[in-house]
Amino acid sequence: MKTSKTRIDTWIAAVLVLCAALTACSRPKHTPAELRPVLEELLPKSAEINEIYFGEGLPTTRDVDVVRAFYETFDTDIQSISYTPVDPACGYETIDDIKAATLAVFTPDYAEFLFDRAFNGISDLFDEGLETEHRTTAVYAMYLEENGYLTKRVNLAEDAIPLGRTYDLDSLTVLRENETGVEVKLASFLDGQPSVEVKMWLVETADGWRLDSPTY
Fold this sequence. Notes:
This protein is of the alpha+beta class.
């Protein structure tokens, strides 16, 4: 009987140790106090990035000489050109500049989604495998580099979504943490509407913390 009881006691102790270990592993390692400064830095930067990809886009130049020089590089009717030069004074002169600014805020995985949308456009393949197979562009690229100019699609503002969301960092709570990152929750506001709680992922990379969720 003593042997049986000893085995049961040993088994219970092992289960308790395992439960304690699992609880410790699931407990977030980072606190709201540690993550607030991270979001204080990243969220304003993400607002600028959101404007590039989801708002009216980068400002275009008002220098008529630059615009004329750009148009003269094309052997076509000016009216058919749907892109116009970006103002270099905004700090972005190449697509690589936009990518670098994006990767300073967002993870590579999330950034790849933005890059595809902005620089490649969206197209659909029809009649795949048939003689009539063809690809039709559904959404044209937002930005192109043409003849040494960074250009923006002229009708980009038509696709813009409401931006300007703000966040209450005092409401920040940490929901969970695993090997991929930290999920947090906080209150947000947009255009005077009632507050909405949003969740977002933060990932600590070799280059610092990055957002892995949209912030618009």
